[in-house]
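Q: What would this chain look like folded?
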Amino acid sequence: MMPTLRRTALFVKRLTGGLARPMKHPQASSGLTVTPYRGFGSRREAFLTGRVFHQAPLVRGIPRRGFLRDLVDVGRRIARRGVAEASVDIRLGDNHATVTTDRDGYFEARLPLASSLPRDRVWHLAELWVTAAEEGAVRDDVEVFIPVSEPDLLVISDIDDTVVYTGVADKLRMLYRLFIEQPHQRMAFPGVAALYQALHRGADDQGERPILYVSRGPWAIYEMLETFFQLNRIPVGPILFLREWGLSLRHPWPRRAEAHKEQLIGRMLATFEGVPCVLIGDSGQHDPEVYTRIVEAHPGRVQAIYIRRVDKREDRQRAIQGLCDQLRNTRCDLVLAADSVLIAEHAEAQGFISEHGLAAVRREAATAPGDDGPEESGPGDAG
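A: My prediction, written as structure tokens:
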């Protein structure tokens, strides 16, 4: 009984700490606050997004750290309100744009790059200045990924149950993995690091292809994911979240993510106009269906869909096989695979990665701990 109570108490404590984590940002003390996401772009334009909100002040007498502070910060986070009609001034090099937040405080900016950026690096720093009625201006910086030259391939990947095992289909298990496990305890699927490194470097092992990540998780785990990527040597890229998980009084429940994911990937494709891409996801949610619709909406752009099989149900496999058949007459292969090696073998055969990259994936997968996924699978009907 006592061990169970201790585990429950630990769960509550770490869950509270995880939800309170965004409140630890230096700008989150009180007043006007901006939370930007990492941006991305081509040599023609950049895309940035984020949220502006008003933060309630911390009550005097609350300790600087500990469970009570976390509990108060969770309350402050739930009570915070997005600031509508705030002006967000963005500068990237000599390029400039001003956008206005929507009714929930979110903003999206497409920044034309009329003035070229330095070509000695791919990460650039954008400066944000935010002003709102009767509020003092606030400033923040955010990194933006801009390839040195036009990439030959764009990689767009889900994170949850694709890169890291979270168990999205099991909500309680997902909460445990998101908030209880530390970054070094989170489990990457075997061979994932080598696979994404190979996709990043390309067929000549010299490239710096953009890899854009989307996640169903909350903003609270952003720092955890960054640390997890670094610990597992997975190429870091812009991570865009599909929803805020409704931690507000206006929206008390998570919003559906499928339609927003489609729109978000559409924006990515528009930013890298004409660049072919591959989409990577898992079978546990709606990735195969969403990706198939993207193939149909953007003919010729998607070269391959890689789906990690994490769902053993036969009806789910039949549904995905139906999508394979649906794409038979397109240029896109839908590959359903239980491990990273099968994905890498197809990618090498298509010229997306090098032989060296494929060998690295095989070595990493062979020496990794056992995968939680099914033991048997094969590629879908590669049309």
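The chain has two domains: 16-145, 154-367.
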